[in-house]
Amino acid sequence: MLVFDYFDSSDDDQNYEKGLVQFDYYLFNNESDSFSFRPFIGINAGYMNYESTNIDESGFLYGAQAGFIFGVTEYFDIDVMYRYSLTDAAHTDHVEAVVLGLNYLY
After folding, report:
1. CA distance 79 to 69
2. What are the strands, taking DSSP E only, across the chain?
3. Which has the least CB within 10 A, 29, 31, 51, 100?
4. Nearest 5 degrees, angle CA 19-CA 9-CA 53?
5. How many other CB atoms are found less than 10 A from the CB of residue 69?
């Protein structure tokens, strides 16, 4: 999966961009059942840029994620994931994210 995150806040003068490539491995891949529960684990790697007052840094990211997909109907499923990434930037040592997605299957 290709991921791009963007955050810009004028209230606390922060701007953040992150691009990732992530690969996931499904532990129990039973796609034949539309109401299936499929947990997964994965790895990610990418690049980030962070700007704030007196800080402008960029760096590489790498880390892991885990989550599950739950099939709601034949055409929709829900994706819940936690992602943790380390970075080599000077002021940012790691980035965390909780992701909730609704997927349409066609």
Report:
1. 4
2. 2-9, 14-26, 37-52, 55-71, 76-87, 94-104
3. 100
4. 90
5. 21
Task: Please list, in sequence order, all residues whose beta carbon lies within 8 angstroms of the beta carbon of residue 54, skipping any fewer than 6 positions away.
Answer: none
Amino acid found at 87: T
How far apart CA 22 and CA 83 sit, in angstroms, is: 10
Domain limits, the chain: 2-104
Q: In which residue are the tokens 């829900």 written?
A: 78
pLDDT digit string (tens) for 3-50?
998 989 888 888 889 999 999 999 876 656 556 889 999 999 999 998
What pairing do the DSSP bridges indicate for beta strands 14-26 and 2-9?
antiparallel
